[in-house]
Amino acid sequence: MAQVYRGGQLHGTGQPARMTPREVLTREFDPRRRGVDREQVRDFQARLAGELADLYRELRLLVQENTRLQRALRDWQLMHARECRPPEEHHGNQRW
After folding, report:
1. Where are the domains positioned within the chain?
2. How far apart (Å, rounded) are the C-alpha atoms in residues 96 and 88?
3. Does the predicted model carry a pTM greater than 0.90?
């Protein structure tokens, strides 16, 4: 099971662990009597490893952008909340 950190704590995701590009490149297969073309397997692994590396890089950038947007939203909400406070209470039945 894959694990991730959230709030400084390690949590299981319920998903199988992701393969890394390195794992794809170094994966060994058991030989068979009628085996496969090793060159085709290596070419496929190289292609798949490259695609995984690209996807992980893109995912990392998207996570960073998401974090930046969450911070910006939180900052905006704090600023807006300060500006939108109701006026001080007055004596009597006045409403804001």
Report:
1. 39-84
2. 9
3. no
